[in-house]
Amino acid sequence: MKESIKVFAPATVANVVCGFDVLGFAVNEPGDEVVMRFTDQPGVKLINITGDDGRLPLDPAKNTVSASVQHYLDHIGRPDIGVEISLHKKMPIGSGLGSSSASTVAGLFAINQLMDNILTTKELVPFAMKGEELACGYGHADNVAPALMGGFVLVRSYEPLDLIALPTPNGLYAGIVYPEVDVPTKDAREMIKSKVPLKDAVVQWGNVAGIVAGLYSNDVELIGRSMKDVLIEPVRSILIPDFYLLREFAMDNGALGFGISGSGPSVFALAKDFETAKQITAVQQEHLKKLNIKSNAYVSAVNAVGPRVL
After folding, report:
1. Which residue among 104, 168, 185, 276 is the active-site one?
2. Residue 29 catalytic?
3. What is the C-alpha to C-alpha distance for residues 25 and 160, in angstroms, rounded to an integer?
4. What is the DSSP string of 191-254?
5. Tens digit of pLDDT for each residue in 151-202?
6. Residue 93 maps to which CATH number?
7. Domains contained in the chain, number
8. CB atoms near residue 195 (< 10 Å)
9. CB within 8 A of 197, min separation 6: which ones?
């Protein structure tokens, strides 16, 4: 049994436009790192956090990483085990890229590795969902499942939890831009209507099915034309500066499709190659600069492996 470990877990794009709470994929960057080691004292301790500007709690019961690890140890019947955790935030908080998810997943992957992989990766997802519940009040899986499992993941059902790993077409790249504006996940979720017209629901079902069919048939054009959201995006897009202009820039520069990553403010475009994705982010960043909005850009292939030991 190892005594200590360092783990990286990736950011994720949740919803993938039309798949609210049921669809997501992992990217290669950014992500978070966790360093974990066994101690003689029982209990989970969070000894330090870097890169968060003091925004995250060090209280083990209130931080998603330590709380999820404690759930895991209780579940496997080893609450007597002591671990110390250092969390290194390598990605922006509140970006819509699964920041809390990446931290939580890194912690769970680390403790499971130290415990000689008692649980499968898929079995770790419910513990990560507990972390999401702590972070934003609702334990959804469209960030944590792809962060743990890699690639595209469909959450077919929450009760019972049924996760389906989907294939990824070769050469698919995501161009992500994070405008530095504040869009709290809880606030973005509260904007969503609880009831929707049947005709809109039919459009949404068709598009989610279209993305899944496109992934299985390696049809990137089908994926692109299925990336349309008539339920969530019209509400959330008002929180993102010049959202529809950013979409126009993406589509004019060769994007297959474009939308909001998670609850925003990050936006993403899917493209057929790295250069196209990079060009899209460059044009969008140039526009945001004219609005005096700082931004970060990430261009990444779909991450097929999820977390990794460093």
Report:
1. 185
2. no
3. 21
4. TS-S---HHHHHHHHHHHHHHHHHHHHT-HHHHHHH---SSSHHHHGGGSTTHHHHHHHHHHTT
5. 999 999 999 999 999 999 989 999 999 999 986 666 666 777 778 899 999 9
6. 3.30.230.10
7. 2
8. 5
9. none
Are 19 and 138 within one domain?
yes
Q: Rounded to an integer, what distance in angstroms lies between the CA atom of residue 123 and that of residue 141?
A: 12
Using alpha carbons, list the distances in angstroms from residue 5 to 58, 242, 274, 294: 20, 43, 32, 35
CB-CB contact of 90 with 32 (8 Å):
yes
**Claim to verify: residue 163 and residue 195 sit in the same structural domain:** no
Q: Which position has the token pair 């955790």? A: 85
Catalytic residue among 12, 132, 168, 233: 132
Model confidence at 138, pLDDT cuts 50, 70, 90, reads confident
Is the same domain home to 100 and 150?
yes
Q: How would DSSP label each residue in 72-107?
A: HHHHTT-TT-EEEEEEEE-S-TTSSS-HHHHHHHHH
Same domain, residue pair 131 and 233: no
Distance CA 161, CA 178 (A): 31
DSSP state of 151: S
Report the CATH number at residue 297.
Answer: 3.30.70.890
Catalytic status, residue 276: no
CB count, 10 Å around CB of 219?
Answer: 15
